[in-house]
Amino acid sequence: MVMVQIHSVLLTQLKPKRTYSMVTANRFWSQIFGVAFSNKRWLHFFMLFVPVTGLWMSAVGVVGLALNLRAYDFVSQEIRAAEDPEFETFYTKNILLKRRYSCLDGGSGSAS
To answer: What Gene Ontology molecular-function terms does this entry list (predicted)?
Structure first.
């Protein structure tokens, strides 16, 4: 009998306590994002979704910077190469090589 009482007392002491309240969490998220949650599942999903999305977006940005992926490199290489003679890509190198070989050929090849 004493053992059962001790066991039940220990079990009640080991119950985890809440580390946050839904009211406080709803107030926090509604002030930042304007979102209020009806239950804990949506709150926990959002608490997981926001940092994971931020990490993925920053990783995509770092990869984009590392690979030198900028909009004008894809859209207007020819315009940029015409403005800046030092600007050189594979695209402009191929054009220059075609022109050079057509000049060596005697001008019989097309330069475009």
So the answer is: chlorophyll binding; metal ion binding; oxidoreductase activity
